[in-house]
Amino acid sequence: MMPPPKGNPALLTRREREIMNAVFALENRAPSDEIRARLTNPPSESAVRVMIARLEKKGFLKHQPDGARHLYSATISPAVAKRTALQQCLQTFFSGSLRHMVSALVAEESWTDEELSSLKEEIERVRKERKKRSW
């Protein structure tokens, strides 16, 4: 089993997070050229390899030989990465206010009535769960 990453996922640079997202999108098993192809305004292949090596040193990626190339995979789960990205977004853009973040998402999107009903049902489900726990 891999040791946990040496760094905090919230402290990854924008490009490092983008690389991690690419690895997850490629089913957590990706060569550097496919990772690079998913990056916005991709830097050179050698620059991508340097960033991948940095992520390996920090403990967020590992590699496995596959013939003449390496396949990279994350050492953290997509759920942990998602939670960390949401926390970073929450702190950066909404000063830590979950209410403001959710309100902005609801106000900015063109939700269908079905989607809004589904969100309402999820909110009610969470309320019921909390009431059960507080008894």
Q: How would you sum up this structure, described in words?
A:
The protein has helices at 14-25, 32-37, 45-58, 78-94, 98-108, 113-134, and strands at 61-66, 69-74. The chain is elongated, with a radius of gyration of 19 Å. The chain has 135 residues and is mostly helical. The longest helix has 22 residues, at 113-134.
List keywords for this structure.
Arc Repressor Mutant, subunit A; 6 helices; 135 residues; elongated; 61% helix; 2 strands
List the helices and strands and how they pair.
Blueprint: H1 14-25, H2 32-37, H3 45-58, E1 61-66, E2 69-74, H4 78-94, H5 98-108, H6 113-134
Antiparallel strand pairs: 1-2
Described by the principal axes of the CA atoms, the overall outline is: elongated
Instruction: Give the strand tally.
Output: 2
What is the string of SSEs from the N terminus onward?
A: HHHEEHHH
Overall mean pLDDT: 89
CATH superfamily of the largest domain: Winged helix-like DNA-binding domain superfamily/Winged helix DNA-binding domain
Question: What is the CATH topology descriptor of the largest domain?
Answer: Arc Repressor Mutant, subunit A
Number of domains: 2
What is the helical fraction, as a range of percent?
55-70%
Beta strand %: 5-15%
For the biggest sheet, the summary is: 2 strands, antiparallel
Secondary-structure class: mainly alpha
Strand line-up of the largest beta sheet: 1-2
The Cα radius of gyration reads 19 Å
CATH class of the largest domain: Mainly Alpha
Please report the number of helical segments: 6
Alpha carbon gap, first and last residue: 39 Å
The residue ranges in which pLDDT falls below 50 over 5 or more consecutive positions are: none
> Which architecture of the largest domain does the CATH hierarchy give at level 2?
Orthogonal Bundle
